[in-house]
Design goal:
By secondary structure, the chain is an alpha+beta fold. The protein has a single domain, classed as Heat Shock Protein 90 (2-Layer Sandwich), CATH 3.30.565. Helices cover 31% and strands 25% of the residues. The chain has helices at 30-46, 52-72, 117-124; strands at 21-26, 79-86, 90-97, 129-134, 137-145. Strands 1-2-3-5-4 form a 5-stranded antiparallel sheet. Helix 2 runs antiparallel to helix 3. The longest helix is centred in the middle third of the chain and has 21 residues, at 52-72.
C-alpha cells in the first residue's frame, strides 16, 4: 500500500499561462503564413500582456523554423508540426519534421540569398535554441524571452 502524505502540495515550476498548442502543416510555402497567423492568435489569447516586440519576435522565429523545416526537413507530401508554449517569462516554439539531419549555422555571407535563418534565431534567442531527435525525425526549438 502506498501512503499519501496530506501535508504536501503539488509543486509548480513555471506558471502556466495556457496549454501548449499544436498546429499540423503541410510541407508547402503557404504553411509559413499559416504558422505566423496561428502564433499571433495564440499569443493574443494566452499572453494578452505580451509586448508587440515579443509577439513580432516569436512570429519571426516561428517563420524561420517553419521555412527551414519546409526547405530542409521535409519532402513533398510530408507534414510538420508546430508546438507553442508560453508562460510569464518566455514563449517556446518547437517545429518537428521527419528528417533527422540537424541544422547547422553557416557563416554569414552576402553572396547567398538564403541560409540566414539560424543566424536570425541565434540573435533573437541567444543560447536558447537547439535540436533533438524524436522517434520519427527531429525537433528544432527556440525560446523567446519576455521583454
Amino acid at each position: 500500500m502506498i501512503e499519501r502524505r496530506r501535508d504536501t502540495a503539488p509543486v509548480c515550476y513555471a506558471p502556466a499561462v495556457g496549454p501548449p498548442a499544436i498546429l499540423l502543416l503541410l510541407s508547402e510555402p503557404a504553411s509559413a503564413r499559416a504558422a505566423r497567423e496561428f502564433v499571433r492568435e495564440y499569443l493574443r489569447h494566452y499572453a494578452p500582456e505580451a509586448s508587440a516586440e515579443h509577439i513580432d519576435s516569436v512570429v519571426l522565429v516561428t517563420c524561420e523554423l517553419v521555412t527551414n523545416s519546409i526547405r530542409y526537413g521535409t519532402e513533398p507530401e510530408d507534414s510538420l508540426r508546430v508546438v507553442l508554449d508560453t508562460d510569464d517569462t518566455r514563449t517556446r516554439v518547437e517545429v518537428q519534421d521527419p528528417v533527422r539531419r540537424h541544422p547547422r549555422v553557416r557563416p554569414e555571407s552576402d553572396d547567398r540569398d538564403r541560409g540566414r535563418g539560424l543566424i536570425i534565431l541565434d540573435k533573437l534567442c541567444p543560447d536558447r535554441w537547439g535540436v533533438y531527435d524524436i522517434p520519427f525525425g527531429k525537433a528544432v526549438w527556440a525560446e523567446v524571452m519576455a521583454a
